């Protein structure tokens, strides 16, 4: 069994953004030399997500509005967590909806994807350097 | 390390439905000959889910009502994504709540499940052929 | 390839609680002797979750309030599932939001975590003995 590990670093200038990281994960997979196995991609921070969906601008605007409805950022005082001096309680909840991680099959040296699957980094508390972990195991 | 891959195809005649696919995944596992490892089951489409919960009709009606409350299908014009000519923005959000994938332990040649765990395909934009991927690695 | 399996048992005296189980999972990993691979941790019950987030009391109070808003426990009669004699339909929905499972990378014999990642058992229908599965594969 082979295993491969890489950290991807991001610094999003806004508070929230969705970044397509598919090409970076594909590049990790090529570097790993693994042909058959599983590829885990997870946010290493608890106010960010890794998820799979569509690279369509309108949908991303819908996600932003929808997450603000389900877990509004403001008023910051609505959240007990923000009494610790943080203002990012909503980011913990938004990341919960979107998910921490994905596991993707690796088949014949490629990410084994359906027609529209793309990997996104979901940042919900940006403006600082944060990391995603790529771990691939297989042969 | 062994690896196994199979696509399961579905064509749901309605827009939305929950299908119990546990027996089909168990059949994949038998075919794989893998006794110890991990089994990934994921929707290959971004308007569908694979998730684990109870095979109880009342609960499935609750899911339908609850998802319609969290991410209503209509009005279609409420979503930017639908300006592309689609009408399925809600399906992308519903699938986000329900999840893209599950990873199940394989122990002694069986899916290592608690007493009520059943695997479902969650279709949120049906009436066409769509796929689920089963990937099993182990020994 | 090595594989390791362990069940962790919990009996939460309240209906709902979030328990930090990171140390127990780390102890499993040490016992497994696995240095590189993947660690799956999943609830074996469909009214409970395993998820990763912050061990901060205020945030946990926010989760409780937020989940009660998204999927209120009462009135029990609001849910078809509860016509079966159950009163825990809300727990199935809360667990759906929080997730069934996590997959964590194992690197150099440790859980490969970012700075604040902690593993939680989320109980949404307690007052009875329930289980979490830890399955680790690798070398």
TrEMBL record, chains A, B, C:
InterPro entries: UPF0047_YjbQ-like, YjbQ-like_sf. Pfam families: YjbQ. The lineage of its organism: Bacteria, Pseudomonadati, Verrucomicrobiota, Opitutia, Opitutales. NCBIfam families: TIGR00149_YjbQ (TIGR00149). This is Secondary thiamine-phosphate synthase enzyme.
């Amino acid at each position: 069994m082979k295993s491969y590990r890489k950290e991807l670093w991001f610094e999003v200038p806004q508070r929230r953004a969705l970044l397509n990281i598919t090409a970076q994960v594909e590049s990790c997979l090529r570097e790993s030399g693994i042909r058959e196995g599983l590829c885990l991609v997870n946010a290493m921070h608890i106010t960010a997500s890794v998820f799979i969906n569509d690279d369509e601008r309108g949908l991303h605007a819908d996600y932003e509005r929808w997450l603000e409805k389900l877990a509004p950022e403001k008023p910051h005082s609505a959240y007990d967590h923000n009494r610790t001096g943080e203002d990012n309680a909503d980011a913990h909840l938004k990341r919960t909806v979107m998910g921490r991680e994905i596991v993707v099959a690796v088949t014949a040296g490629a990410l084994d994807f359906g027609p529209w699957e793309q990997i996104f980094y979901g940042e919900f508390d940006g403006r600082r350097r944060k990391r995603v972990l790529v771990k691939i195991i297989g042969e």
